[in-house]
Structures are given as structure tokens and as C-alpha cells.
Amino acid sequence: MTDSPLALPVVDADLERRLVERLARIEELLAEHCKGRTRYVSEAATHLMMAGGKRFRPLLVLLAAEAGTHPDAEEVNTAACVVELTHVASLYHDDVMDEAALRRGADTANARWDNLVAILTGDFLFGRSSELTADLGPDAVRIQARTFTQLVEGQILETVKPGPGEDPLEHYLEVVAGKTGSLIATSARYGAMFGGARPEVVEALSAYGEIVGSSFQLSDDILDIASESVTSGKTPGTDLREGVPTLPVLMAQASTDPADARLLELLGRPLTDDSEHAEALGLLRAHPAMQEAREYVLGQATQAKKLLEVLDPGPVRTALESFADTVATRTA
């Protein structure tokens, strides 16, 4: 549904209404959880949270909970706040690492204040997330600790090149699974767990979340090359210009075709020159690596949907299947 207020495609009107109402409650809770003892801390902590965002992670918690016997349990709401607070906290740290000036159309915390404030604000939100996780019990604490470890390890791996003999593509996929897939997997797991789903459903939705979460980033990689700014609102080739490795770039760099010599030369360095950037963008758009990347993401969507066969047919399963397809084929 293109006019849906939700980030997930939900065609069942009753399910959509429930999710919209419950997500509104999550927004209220998040605003409360971002408050500190002083106005200064509260302002810094709510800065990115109130800047918007699709709230995909808490929404996935709520949707996964619908696969259980008590989707409206208060623990589900708490878990939804846990994952969003963790996500937003990581954005504060990401923006410092990337020296970013804008996030969601607003000044980043490091641009508005400084790096120290941004880092400590991220830590504050991680602390809030940990407090809430403790309320969910030891199993949730263990899951959250493991997720946080995976997320941070993914961020660390992103800063280093693959080691000798290591496949650059496999290295990159490991980074994506850690940075993006791990928290989305936990979102689905928490929802199913605290919504009272069967154990096999909990495991299936967790695996589904990791695949779909990683695929969302890989789709971004494709859009960075293929999109036109007029239709997507994004500047094409941003990662390419900065020399950031992405799925289609890494697949193109695996080529041994002599005809790709010029493209490989360009891809071997940041493309600060506008004419070289435009040349590389054109060559890459026409390269078989683009189709290879699309087919890989489509294959991931098929794998994710296969995991949903443990769910009973119905609007929840349909929504999750549709989301996997949407991630694989999205244009914005």
C-alpha cells in the first residue's frame, strides 16, 4: 500500500490499524525514554529520535508479535523501544565515524554540538536500552548483549580491509550482517518471543530478520548506482565517489575480463573528479555485476520467504512476505 503510514506493506486493514495504533504508543514511550535529568541531555538524546525515521525495527517487533498468542503484551512494547533506542544510539556513533553533517534532513549531533557530546549521547541511549532490556529478563539481556557485540564488530570490520586470502565480498557481507542484519534479526526475535509465538516461529523469524535486514542494505548499494536523483531523491554514486565498497562494485571488481580494465582502474580509488565519477557510474550501470547484484538480493528474498512457511497463512505472513519482496525490488 503506497499510501500506508507504515514502513511495511500491510494490505489487511485490521492489521494495519492495530500496528498504526500500537506504533503511536511506541512513539510516546520513546519520547519518555530519551529524557535525561537535565534539559541539555534530553535535548541531545531526543535530537535524532524526533528527526523521524521509518521506525522499521519497532514495527517489525510489533508485526512479529502478531504471530503469537498475546501480541499486545506490554513486554512487546518494551522490546520495540529497546531495538529503536539501540538503533538510534548507533547512529550517533556512526555520524561521528563518518564525520557526517546531516542525518534525516537535520544537523547531526556532532555537527550541532561536537563529537564528544554525540558519543556520550549515544552511550546514554545505549544505557537506556540496557535498562529496559533488564526489565525483560535474563534471556533478553543475553540476546541484546550478543546483538550489540555483533553490531559493534560489524562496525569495526567496516574500518579494516579484508585480510590476505580473504574474499572481499564475503568480508563485506559479514560487515552488513553485523551492522544491519543483527539488530533487525533481534527485532523479529523479540516480537515473536514476547508475543508468545511457538519456538520454531521465533527461530524462523529471527533468521528471516537477519536476511531481510542485510538485504535492505544491499538494495541501498544497488540504488546508489542505479537510481536517478530525480526519482529517488538521492545523489547517485555517493558511495562510489567516496570509494566505499558495495555489492555491485565488489562483484564488478571480481571480473577478469580485459574489457573491464578501465572500470577496474576507476574503482580502485575514490572518484573525486566529476568526469571520472560520471564515467565510472556509466560503466558500472552497464556492467553485468548490476544484474548479478539484483539476482543475489532477489535470491535472499526467496530464502527469507521460505523461512515463513512455519507461520500459518494469513495477513501477518503475507505482510512479511511482501516486505521481503519490497526490499529486494525497491526503487527508493
TrEMBL record:
Gene3D superfamilies: Farnesyl Diphosphate Synthase. Its EC number is 2.5.1.-. Keywords: Magnesium, Metal-binding, Transferase. Signal peptide: none annotated. Pfam families: polyprenyl_synt (PF00348). It comes from the Bacteria. Its cofactor is Mg(2+). This is Polyprenyl synthetase family protein.
